[in-house]
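Database export, one record per block. Field names are fixed; values are copied verbatim from the stored entry.
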Amino acid sequence: MPTYALSGSGTSAAVWAQTIGSLPGHELRTVHGRRQEHAERLAAAYAAVAAEPDELGRGVEIAVVASAPPAHAADALRAAGHGAAVLIESPMCARLDDADELVAAAAAGGRLMVAESLLFAPLVRDAIERARALGRFSSLQLRVLTQAPVRRTALDAQWGGGVLFDLGVHPLAVLLTLAGEDRPVSVRARLAPAGTGLHAVDDLADVELVLRSGARCTVELSWRATQPQWDLQLATPTSTLRLELQPDPHVEQLGVDLPRPPRRHRGVEPAQLEVFGYLDQVVETAADLAAGRPPYVDVRFGRAVLDVLCAAYRSAGTGVPEPLPFTGDRTRTPWQLWREESHRDG
């Protein structure tokens, strides 16, 4: 039976606790939150124990890091130091120098991976497999529109960024997976702030990426929508493929609906835990660790996504495309790269 520790006690941590608690044979043992009362409440709901943050990873096989992104690297390294394998919520961290440290720890033998559940979502996987069978795409459009997050901390600049950082990390992970070896060479972003204050984060984003092949990709993100919408459309010289996760989950090719993958976790509710890949990520991560297989989403990939995010935020500040890989300041969060460039130009 895989045993787990959980870092964090907010909304994201609650989703991971619910996921682990929904799976037979998986046991959440400890919750490590910086707010003791919240950690105790979350732990009690799953017959777990609230423990000190410094003890994260001790006595369990897997530690799930779902604290605030600026704390991810320190939490992950602490858990790895206590012998646990570590699953780090995406965004993997808030600064590229922290990402470098995680990659170095993995290269030295640490079992570190990224909890990018969207890459385990059944419909997303189905769409990726079908897209690869079609060959190299010439254009790709992704759109994620939703309401502002319930967790108010994501609207704080200290989180690391706004909608592009907190929400955009997931479609960007899908984009990089679809692109494969056809890596992005430049990115341009336009961001709109959620308010007029100096510390306002972005709640509207338009991102354009150019790949080595010349293919163009766009990502549209919003926290201003009244109804959620999540879709992807790609085009090749001979076909088109469209994925919709919200409001009507399905995949279609040339306008024709395709069969949906069967449910693997019947009876587990809410169904969103399966639709968005949480259940499969936990099951497959535990199986890979038991078999000694490398993780499906490693920390190098997590760093590659953050690299694009940092370049995109800097582009939003300068108003011009930013080359990739990112060559700017690795000690700044995406939000800092955006605002510092904006104020410099102003």
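Remark 1: The chain is about 35% helix and 25% strand.
Remark 2: The chain has two domains: 3-117+292-296, 119-258+303-323.
End of record.
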